[in-house]
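== Sequence entry ==
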Amino acid sequence: MLKLLIADDERIIRETIYHLIDWEKYDIEVIGLCQNGIEAYDMILDESPDIVLTDIRMPGMGGLELIKKFSHTDLFIQFIILSGYGEFEYAKEAMKYGVKHYLLKPCNELQILECIKQCKQDYSQIIMERRILKQQFFLQSGMLHNVISSIINDRLCQNEPLENIIAQYEQYLDFHFTSYRLFYIYFLEYENLPAFLDMLKAYAAQHLPQVILYGVYVKNTLLLFMQDIGGHPDRLKEFLRQIQLKTQKVSLESEDISYSSLQELLRDILEKLKRFSMIYYINNFHITSTCNYNIFISRIQQLCIEIMGGKQESVDQVAELLDGIENTDFLKQLASSIFLKLTSNQPALSTIELAEWLMKLDKEENLINLKDMILQKFLDFSTCKNTDVSLSSMTQQIYTYVNEHLQDANLTLKQLAENYLFMNVDYVSKKFYKETGQKFSQYLTAARIKRAKQLMIQNPAEPVKNIAEQVGCGNNPQYFSQLFKKQTGMTPTDYINSLNSPA
């Protein structure tokens, strides 16, 4: 469901638009009715709407200025302009910033719906492109495959509900709302598995370049699964029917099942895997085996808890455990599982940093170097201390990121969530509010004003325009003055004068 924001300084217009259409029927959620651009700006920061229907002229901040403020961000917002006859020049100016949709007041239901329809089409295209890019990066890092193998291992080795295990990995994959297709390839002998994967890899490179294939192999059966999109599973089904292996004693057979979600699929897979002692994971068409996982994972997890509690000597015990592992594939698998979990609960590493580290880990084949890399990462975590134990690592990372990027006029929660935390923006927004009692826009504004006051105290002679630039409001000093007065009760100039006046 796409999110729509309506902004117009005339109450009757914004409420008429809201009540004119059964928005839910068109898979649209109206998240707010704003009476000016300033209200709309804050709501965009907090709620990240997909479509903004805005009047071109409003008090405080008009629609054109609102569009300009978000034109240089990586937010994909579809703006629809509402304009009177005498305001067409403003509308033409907005078109320079990529706005495609323009409605002349008064407009009717059909005109609005036609714009909404076009916006939805554009949105679907851009979201698909962004998803592909993100998946390609994660695929390159091996992270997505590591997540799947970690979940399977955790469930098989721990007596814990699948929902609880998945909750630890929700920032990496959509487990609930994306449909999947599972293929069973029967009678595939292990010695023929590499040849089969080579054929599959060649086919995927040509016909499925943007599709991620996951695989688990047990006892002559390969469980292959993928997102059920764009007709790709049906084409794969036809390819599997045609595969012939020269040394295969019996013909391969296959069947496929559709699932409404990844969680539902994993539940079925786990039910079938639990009776097997040896499992092979297919990571980017590379075979990785797992063994004695339970012994190591339970002990290292306990040591992790001790390390995070500041018990430095536990690092030495980790080193001893690592010293006893001679299989590089197993070592990589074990490390990825551990650090995926640690990163989701600890601000020492961002997701992007972990992905980059996993890529380096995957390329390293020297056993001694591998152990050194892993041990160093444990040391990195052991020296990291939470500044506020009452806050989650996610919120702490937001605080850190905002503090380091206050000068960025294009800073938004969506940008931060998707490109730094690699989490869903709605989830981040709700969790941040629950933990802090503030919306992100409120926190960002307060942080900017706090920084501005610090700069003014340090140098009262600094021009207000320069101060505004340093706190991310340089593109609109007037807006900065409005924010400052709203927060402090004084204009920036009055505040500076108060600093210079005798006590």
